[in-house]
Amino acid sequence: MAAIVAGHGQELVWLLEHPPLVTAGTSAVDTELLEPTRFPVHRAGRGGKFTYHGPGQRIAYAVLDLERRRRDLRWYVHNLEEWAIRTLAAFGVQGERREGRIGIWVTMPGGRECKIGAIGVRVRRWVAYHGIALNVAPNLEHFSAIVPCGISEHGVTSLADLGIQATMADVDRALRCSFPGLLAP
To answer: Which whole number is the average pLDDT over 109-119?
Structure first.
């Protein structure tokens, strides 16, 4: 990060998968950690509340220089959301934003709304890091260890839960194809 601030570091996007764990953002409330000993808990320093990460979930950590792109956090978060929405569209899934709720949402058959993607951001000296998490085929029961992002009245879903048999490589290709142009300097 210091190298990026100094003007000679390279921006990065990491695509990865975590072992089962819970991350706590700066707004995490301990009462929303429903099973505190089930998974390791890491204080992440990013915005947001508790988020589960694990196998079957694609994490995209973006380390980007907002100083040279745009010094606007709302713009940045909006574009991270758009990245996830466009990626889901590659699989025929209509991901959407919801007023007053963090993350990316889908409407299930029958009308129930479920979260399919999470967003967590931290910015220091206008270098953004952390990013998005898309549920490809995680064990959805693992989300019961927390109140995901502080939202208890809606469920969590995945591409697999929607009947889409996408691999991580498929999702990686879609992430790479949908990223260009969104966060251009």
So the answer is: 94
DSSP 154-166: SEE--TTTTT---
Active site residue 149: yes
Task: For residues 162-180, give the mean pLDDT.
Answer: 96
- The helix/strand/coil state of 175 is helix
Q: Do the beta carbons of residue 129 and residue 47 sit within 8 Å?
A: no
Domain 2-178 has CATH 2.130.10.10: no
Domain ranges of the chain: 2-178
Of the residues 149, 159, 162, 166, only one is catalytic, namely 149
CB atoms within 10 A of CB 115: 23
Phi, psi angle pair for 33, to nearest 5°: -95, 95
